Amino acid sequence: MNRDHTCGELRKTDVGKKVRLAGWVAKRRNLGSIVFIDLRDRYGITQITFDEAHSQLVKDVRNEYVIEVRGVVSLKETANPKLETGEIEVIAEDCKILSSAKTTPMIIADETDALEDLRLKYRYLDIRRNPIKDKLIMRDKVATIVRRVLHEDDFIEVETPILSKSTPEGARDYLVPSRLYKGKFYALPQSPQQYKQLLMIGGMDRYFQIARCFRDEDLRADRQPEFTQIDMEMSFADEEDIFAEVEKVMKAIFKEIKGVDDLSFPRVKYVDAMDKYGSDKPDLRFDNPMCNVTELFRNSAFSVFSNCVAEGGVIKALVFHNATDKLSRKKFDELNEFVKIYKAKGLAYLKYDNGEFTGSVNNALPAEEKKALSEQLKLNSGDVVLMVADKKNIAETALGAIRKKLGEELGLIDKDKFSFVWITEFPMYEYSEEEGRWVSAHHPFTAPRDEDVDKLTTDQANCYSRAYDLVLNGYELLSGSVRIHDSQMQAKVFDALGLSKEQIKNKFGFFIEAFEYGAPPHCGVGIGIERLVMILSGTDNIKDVVAFPKTASAYCLMSDAPNTVDQDQLDFLSLQIKKD
Ligand code: ASP
User: Fold this and answer.
1) Over 80: is that where the pLDDT of 221 sits?
2) Buried/exposed code over 88-127 (b: 16+ C-beta within 10 A; e: otherwise)
């Protein structure tokens, strides 16, 4: 060993000890003939002082050199409160250079002005910085807590294949060509879904895995092509059991990492979440639910509203208190454009001050309708009412997006709060315009609600499932479901999805067969670990919590992956690159 202590370890109580430290030179300062070096490792920084007699030892040492130092711990005259080791320094007696370093292309400090591309190219230097290092350490802590809590409750960790078969999570697969089976491909798992269900059929009872998943999707700010799920599955269990287990894991994580022990886990059905918050991942750090004011305007003199209702649409309203002087005309114009992203035709608004209305629909609405609106919404002076009249799903999502946007901009969100909510009973199917058929909203192994079983193949639009999400501060933290464990029910779902016998056999044959040999009722979840650590560490950039992330275009700037391969390698795989 090059050291007997780390750079974050020594304290006042160690004064007088002879020690050996090793690390990177974070900073070097000369004071006359004395040289001070801040020595850094993962654990912290210790000041090393080379007096006149020893300063020659470090005459060639520059930032980021790796050195080993021997010396004596001594009390500092004035402590440095910024360092945990700030009360002491090590008076050097000897120094060995273990490795020299070129001038680094970026400054290794908490604050850096280096652009993200440069930080990704030299990620190993970026990792030396506390903001990245601390998040990787936090991520490890989360995984450790998960393993401990789940092991306590008899879950066992099982690894499932990476070279596998296409899994139906709805994204594009990453494919790996097979050398031995020409023209055939493995798919990298989008999740270990089928394997974990097969483990239940195999009698493993309670499984978890910190599992790598791969999805070849267009990336967004909070996505990476490869990511990790805390994947769980339980037998002889239903929603109550899996919710309790997940809540236990979350409580342990938030207690140990954030010191928070007053978490609650309310439940909201999908339809109610859409109705009140216009989102299946509502941020409940503030309430502000939407109200349905359709009935008020059924016979409105304002034809935009009454026609909308006559055509089967709805009118949704959202109230922001004490906001009349915070939202300008210009802002309303911006919001009017904003709702168009969600396909809404426009946003109507009213301001209510001292019993008087103003706003975009003030003149169009007769006094008695405004009075009725004021009564239903219990308006107070200073309130702003925003309304969208449109098809139900458009009105809900557009106004839901406004709720989120203005919640943020008007400072309604308590940033110190952790607000969990289970969203339950998701739709069983979604209609894919692209494919012209119903597709699974979660995945095809999700059980329908008992009361919807007879709608499985006949009324897909009104069939709801036993799928659930756990949402935290407006982010979907996990998805999961109670699974189908009856092969006949599974066949019905495939039928509703319009899959032919051939397709079913080819895609899921082995899986379906397994259900013919005794399958326990089971359910599970996949928790996105990156998102969890992002929220815990207060970043909104997923790259911050991944050791070696890819860019938004799925490229690794450090290793230049993906890259071309030798002709030999292609030949082995019988592959030819198409020239276009
Ligand atoms: N495999 C699912 C997902 O990745 C989670 C689950 O149903 O357990 O969303």
Assistant:
1) no
2) bbbebeebeeeeeeeeeebebeeeeebeeebbbbbbebbb
Cα 480 to ligand 1 centre (Å): 5
Q: Is the CB of 525 under 6 A from ligand 1?
A: yes
Which pLDDT band, with edges at 50, 70 and 90, does 560 fall under? very high
What average pLDDT is seen over the chain? 95
Q: Which CATH number fits domain 12-99: 3.30.2010.10, 2.40.50.140, 3.30.450.40, 1.10.10.10?
A: 2.40.50.140
pTM of the full predicted structure? Answer: 0.93
- Ligand 1 pocket test: which of 198, 227, 229, 484 has the largest number of ligand atoms within 8 Å of its C-beta? 229
Go through 399-425 and write b for each residue having 16 or more CB atoms within 10 A of its CB, e for each that does not.
Answer: bbbbbbebbeebebbeeeebbbbbbbb
Cite the residue boundaries of each domain of the chain with CATH code 2.40.50.140. Answer: 12-99
Q: How far is the CA of 548 from the centre of ligand 1 (A)?
A: 24
476 pocket-lining for ligand 1 (C-beta < 6 Å): no
Give me the architecture of the 286-413 domain, per CATH.
Answer: 2-Layer Sandwich (3.30)
**Cβ 191 under 6 angstroms from ligand 1:** yes
Please tell me the distance between residue 325's alpha carbon and the centre of ligand 1 in angstroms: 45
Q: What's the fold here for domain 133-268+421-545?
A: BirA Bifunctional Protein; domain 2 (3.30.930)
pLDDT higher at 219 or 369: 369
For residues 385 and 400, what is the distance between their CA atoms, to the nearest angstrom?
14
193 lines ligand 1 (CB under 6 A): yes
Asked whether the predicted pLDDT for residue 436 surpasses 90, the reply is no
Which atom of ligand 1 is nearest the CA belonging to 446?
A: 7
User: Tell me, what DSSP letter sits at residue 573?
Assistant: T
